[in-house]
Design brief:
A: mainly beta, four-stranded antiparallel β-sheet, globular, B: 113 residues, seven-stranded mixed β-sheet
Chain lengths: 115, 113
């Protein structure tokens, strides 16, 4: 069974600075998707960025980018120029490309942005 | 356009009771998935439905059941509620199977007392 581990329960960053959130996963599959979701106090899970495992190029969405290391099974999220609105819980998630379509989530990292 | 809507937003039930949670996906989305998020944890997969058929089931007891209607809305039913069923229940929709992303609703907060 696939597992996702987020080793940082909490992180903090100063406004305008850069922060990196860590995620590792365990799988025997070669084709899969990885996601980062943000969950603010409003509770809605919002997709931040996604990465297809077959793509070597790291995904980027504006201030958000990932460092995808397939061999190391690592998928970290970098947030540049942090803004107060970035404060939230961040969840890393895995989805197989075969079999079940379920998302497997980590336990999350609470990000605090200090003004 | 309306996003994924869930109802009710909050409810309180007594142990042993039954509860029905509702989800309306984004217009045109045919896949609906349900997740349980216990406080302090990441969401756990309960069910996925696509075109009114169950496509996946997580490791939850038979007290949990779901269905999808012809308009693609969905209901999650939980019977014989336990204190441990207290959680945020999230619904996610996607246009197709193997989608590149899922849109979540804001969830239903269920408290069992």
């Amino acid at each position: 069974a696939q597992t996702v581990t987020q080793s940082q329960p909490e992180m903090s960053v100063q406004e305008a600075e850069t922060v990196t959130l860590s995620c590792t996963y365990d799988t025997s599959e070669s084709d899969y998707y990885l996601f980062w979701y943000k969950q603010p106090p409003s509770r809605q899970m919002i997709l931040v960025i996604r990465q297809e495992a077959y793509k070597q190029q790291n995904a980027t969405e504006n201030r958000f980018s990932v460092n995808f290391q397939k061999a190391a099974k690592s998928f970290s999220l970098k947030i540049s120029d942090s803004q107060l609105g970035d404060a939230a819980m961040y969840f890393c998630a895995y989805r197989s490309e075969g079999g079940s379509e379920k998302l497997v989530f980590g336990k999350g990292t609470k990000l605090t942005v200090n003004p | 356009d309306a996003g994924v809507t869930q109802s009710p937003t909050h409810l309180i039930k007594t142990r042993g009771q039954q509860v029905t949670l509702r989800c309306s996906p984004i217009s045109g989305h045919k896949s609906v998935s349900w997740y349980q998020q216990v406080l302090g944890q990441g969401p756990q997969f309960i069910f996925q439905y696509y075109e009114k058929e169950e496509r996946g089931r997580g490791n939850f007891p038979d007290r949990f059941s779901a269905r999808q209607f012809p308009n693609y809305s969905s209901e999650l039913n939980v019977n014989a509620l336990l204190l441990g069923d207290s959680a945020l229940y999230l619904c996610a929709s996607s246009l197709v199977l193997r989608a590149r992303g899922y849109t979540f609703g804001s969830g239903t907060r269920l408290t069992v007392v």
